[in-house]
Write a structure and sequence with these properties.
CATH superfamily: Flavodoxin domain
Shape: globular
CATH architecture: 3-Layer(aba) Sandwich
Number of strands: 5
Distance between the termini: 15 Å
Order of helices and strands: EHEHEHHEHEH
Number of domains: 1
Structural class: alpha/beta
Bound molecules: flavin mononucleotide
Radius of gyration: 16 Å
Number of helices: 6
Largest sheet: 5 strands, parallel
CATH class: Alpha Beta
CATH topology: Rossmann fold
Strand content: 15-25%
Strand order of the largest sheet: 2-1-3-4-5
């Protein structure tokens, strides 16, 4: 039997927000025996990414970067749970993605080979009632999955502004029940 290990990366700049609530609703539906690891990017801040591709390469990941790289590689599924900030992923989620660029070039990690075959998912909350406002976020994640040869799981969208609002979005709550299956 294939077991899954799902990594949830929380990208909000506040605790207990709508994105996390929606991600936790989706996680509740995972079958027993599915591994879950939750990491809050606020607690594992990454340095600004420096593009050293043509300047001698990137230093080996250390500190929080090493933790996030190890967790990413260990997962079968990576769920980026980022609120919609200015139509895009949050800064912490974007910085995590930027660091993929360095990890791709870490000869020891085998990042590209190991990412292929994993599934990338997104969970996002937005205040806008028009789902297409999240198109840039969806495109960022979908195209990043394609670039890495990952399977694309899609994005679970929920509406909300104040923490807890998303629980009133009955469509999102219903979609959460089958999202990760
Ligand atoms: C910096 C910032 C930018 C935001 N940009 C958008 C946006 O572009 N579109 C939108 O619909 N909501 C936007 N919002 C509202 C949030 O997406 C919404 O409050 C969401 O519930 C926040 O997620 P969280 O509860 O998980 O923290 C923004 C909020 C903040 C703080």
């Amino acid at each position: 039997m294939t077991t899954r290990d799902v990594l949830f990366l929380l990208g909000s700049s506040r605790a207990g927000g709508n994105t996390e609530t929606l991600a936790r609703l989706a996680a509740e539906q995972l079958p027993a025996g599915t591994g879950q690891r939750w990491l809050d990017l606020r607690e594992l801040p990454l340095p600004d990414f420096e593009d050293r591709r043509h300047a001698g390469g990137h230093p080996a990941p250390a500190g929080h970067a090493a933790t996030l790289l190890e967790a990413t590689l260990a997962a079968t599924d990576v769920v980026i749970a980022s609120p919609l900030y200015w139509y895009a992923v949050s800064t912490s989620a974007k910085r995590y993605l930027d660091h993929w660029s360095g990890w791709l070039r870490d000869p020891g990690a085998g990042f590209r080979q190991r990412m292929a075959g994993k599934t990338l998912w997104g969970v996002t909350a937005l205040a806008d009632t028009e789902p297409s406002a999240a198109d840039p976020l969806v495109g960022t994640l979908r195209n990043s999955a394609r670039y890495l040869g990952m399977r694309w799981g899609g994005v679970l969208l929920g509406n909300g502004s104040r923490p807890g609002d998303v629980l009133s979005d009955t469509g999102a709550v219903a979609r959460a029940k089958t999202f990760l299956s």
